[in-house]
């Protein structure tokens, strides 16, 4: 282990040694940041990480030094001789602070100036803290000048404090007796005195100048001798000769702007311009003939005439450098007159001949300015979100307050209360779903479909309303342009997909057969063929047909639920009071059964809707072998 060879040596003058084993000579960081500002911090270690040599004495030694009186060692100290007293009026005699300042004075009675800048000198006397304000005298100014405020102590506030030289600085406002003075600069003595007293002076400012005084320093306007141009000769030569131009003002870029037509007349006799507005019938504008009265039009103004009140006073020849002439009006070029840009697109034959003879221009062609209307923007609807019908969702894009889609009133009146009913089964691989039967109701007035499932007792399925009235979209059709199921899509053997469920039409009621026969042009040959097969099956003898139906659907459960459903749908039927007596007349043995032919004969005489899908399902469930029908359960459907 290598030890420090100079460790322990006394650190005395002449006895200090350099540590030859030291290799680190870095200094500690003294720059830091606090709240985003750079600050200086004291070093914690010395060069190379050594310990700083401070507070080397112990606490006992420090206490001894604090309590030690130097009088015992060195004796009583000698007092310094007292300085000679000099009063303030002697020490600061003839020492004056001088500031250059100005104040603004309103001039309400003059039309040439609205305010006046007055430059002053502010003197501060250090011997008695008094001040005075003096304005340098200007010869023939007409203003009382000289000493504005005599020498005195000036009050600073309402308490009674007076201004002190500590309150004075460059670039500040000083209020004295209601007038505000702006201190802009000071002399060299004042600057050195304030800096010696620790006051940081603001940078000097430029002295404000009086605008009226500066205006008087400008050279006198020189008058130009009028030319020897004979205006009377121009009047006699070009009398009644007028150039006519056709122009437009296109203001369509601004809000509610439009393109308006004008006629510009240029009178050669005195070089004046007149602009007339072209009115159309029923244009909705006031019939003012002139947009601009006949006058000479300035083209280039002098620089000092930019702020000239042109709306109040007429522009004289002294404010104009160049006027509009006939050579400035050219067909096919824009022209700016009084801030409005006109485009000249045509002129009359006299104007064309004048330009050809005077300026050597060929025949000026007419420029077409008729704008073609842009093609109508096709209204695109946003994508369908899946809520409600597409027609209902589209109403939100047509008007701010959505309204119900318009209905075909003629179709509603013609097809009112016309319903097409079909018997269907569910196409499903599940065995329990194969025996389920559904009744489709298609409403011709609204093209809506409702599905009802007759309840079957002990089937595990509640039955009832399977689908409320709604329009059903065909599969594989675009969402934004849906195609709904129509009457031509429903026939025996057709497959109908309703919201993911596939149904097969098994049978129809008599009204559907009559409707399809009367509207055969709406149906396909396949649909008409299915109806013919249906009619041929009805010609089969009753026992064979009933046995076939019983074989297809042997389940007779749910009779009570079906009767309750029929009572709800046919509660207003007129034959419900005497239907039981009619069956009892033919059932002399009171067995509760009647023949099939007698049954349909009684129903036909009492206007019982046997072609209804629910009634047909009830007749099927009440039919027994040998063509007998249990009319007791059938009559219950028409009673309370």
From TrEMBL:
Any one cellular-component term (Gene Ontology): sperm flagellum
Biological process according to GO: cerebral cortex cell migration; flagellated sperm motility; mitotic cytokinesis; mitotic spindle organization; regulation of cell division
Annotated protein name in UniProt: EF-hand domain-containing protein 1
Domain EF-hand, chain residue ranges per copy: 574-609
Compartment(s): Cytoplasm, Cytoskeleton, Flagellum axoneme; Cytoplasm, Cytoskeleton, Microtubule organizing center, Centrosome; Cytoplasm, Cytoskeleton, Spindle pole
UniProt entry tagged with the keyword Transit peptide: no
Gene name for this UniProt entry: Efhc1
UniProt KW keywords: Cell projection, Cilium, Cytoplasm, Cytoskeleton, Flagellum, Repeat
InterPro entries reported for this sequence: DM10_dom, EF-hand-dom_pair, EF_hand_dom, EFHC1/EFHC2/EFHB
Pfam families listed in its UniProt record: DM10_dom
């Amino acid at each position: 282990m290598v030890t420090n060879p100079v460790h322990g040596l006394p650190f005395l003058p002449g006895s200090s040694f350099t540590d030859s084993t030291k290799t680190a000579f870095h200094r500690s960081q003294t720059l830091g940041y606090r709240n985003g500002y750079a600050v200086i911090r004291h070093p914690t270690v010395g060069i190379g990480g050594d310990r700083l040599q401070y507070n080397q004495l112990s606490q006992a030694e420090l206490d001894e030094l604090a309590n030690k009186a130097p009088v015992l060692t060195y004796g009583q100290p000698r007092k310094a001789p007292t300085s000679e007293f000099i009063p303030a009026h002697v020490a600061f005699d003839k020492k004056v602070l001088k500031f250059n300042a100005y104040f603004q004075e309103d001039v309400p009675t003059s039309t040439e100036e609205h305010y006046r800048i007055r430059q002053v000198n502010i003197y501060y006397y250090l011997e008695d803290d008094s001040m005075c304000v003096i304005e340098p005298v200007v010869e023939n100014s007409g203003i009382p000048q000289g000493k504005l405020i005599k020498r005195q102590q000036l009050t600073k506030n309402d308490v009674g404090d007076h201004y002190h030289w500590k309150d004075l600085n460059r670039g500040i406002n000083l209020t004295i007796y209601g007038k505000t003075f702006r201190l802009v600069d000071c002399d060299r003595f004042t600057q050195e005195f304030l800096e010696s007293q620790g006051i940081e002076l603001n940078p000097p400012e430029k002295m404000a100048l009086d605008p009226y005084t500066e205006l008087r320093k400008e050279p006198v306007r020189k008058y130009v001798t009028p030319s020897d141009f004979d205006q009377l000769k121009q009047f006699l030569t070009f009398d009644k000769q007028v150039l006519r131009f056709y122009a437009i003002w296109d203001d369509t870029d601004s809000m509610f702007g439009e393109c308006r037509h004008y006629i510009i007349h240029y009178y050669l006799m005195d070089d004046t311009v007149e602009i007339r507005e072209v009115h159309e019938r029923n244009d909705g504008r006031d019939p003012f003939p002139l947009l601009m009265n006949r006058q000479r039009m300035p083209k280039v103004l002098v620089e000092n005439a930019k702020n000239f009140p042109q709306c109040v006073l007429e522009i004289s020849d002294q404010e104009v450098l160049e006027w509009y002439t006939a050579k400035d009006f050219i067909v096919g070029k824009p022209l700016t007159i009084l801030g409005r840009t006109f485009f000249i697109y045509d002129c009359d034959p006299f104007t064309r001949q004048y330009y050809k003879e005077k300026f050597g221009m060929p025949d000026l062609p007419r420029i077409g300015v008729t704008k073609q209307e842009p093609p109508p923007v096709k209204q695109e609807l946003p994508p369908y979100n899946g809520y409600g019908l597409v027609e209902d969702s589209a109403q939100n894009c047509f008007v701010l307050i959505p309204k119900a889609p318009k209905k075909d009133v003629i179709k509603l009146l013609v097809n009112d209360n016309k319903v097409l009913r079909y018997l269907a089964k569910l196409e499903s691989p599940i065995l329990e779903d194969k025996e389920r039967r559904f009744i489709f109701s298609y409403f011709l007035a609204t093209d809506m479909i409702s599905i009802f499932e007759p309840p079957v007792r002990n089937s595990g399925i509640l039955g009832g309303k399977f689908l409320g009235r709604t329009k059903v979209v065909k599969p594989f059709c675009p969402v934004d342009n849906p195609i709904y199921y129509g009457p031509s899509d429903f026939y025996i053997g057709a497959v109908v997909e309703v919201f993911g469920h596939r149904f097969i039409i098994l049978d129809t009621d008599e009204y559907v057969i009559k409707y399809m026969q009367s509207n055969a042009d709406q149906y396909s040959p396949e649909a008409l063929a299915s109806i013919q097969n249906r009619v041929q099956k009805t010609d089969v003898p009753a026992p064979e047909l009933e046995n076939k139906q019983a074989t297809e659907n042997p389940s007779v459960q749910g009779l009570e639920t079906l009767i309750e459903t029929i009572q709800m749908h046919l509660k207003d039927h007129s034959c419900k009071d005497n239907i039981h007596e009619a069956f009892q007349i033919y059932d002399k043995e009171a067995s509760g059964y009647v023949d099939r032919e007698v049954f349909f004969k009684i129903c036909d005489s009492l206007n019982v809707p046997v072609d209804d899908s629910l009634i047909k399902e009830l007749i099927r469930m009440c039919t027994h072998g040998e063509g007998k029908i249990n009319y007791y359960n059938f009559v219950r459907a028409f009673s309370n």
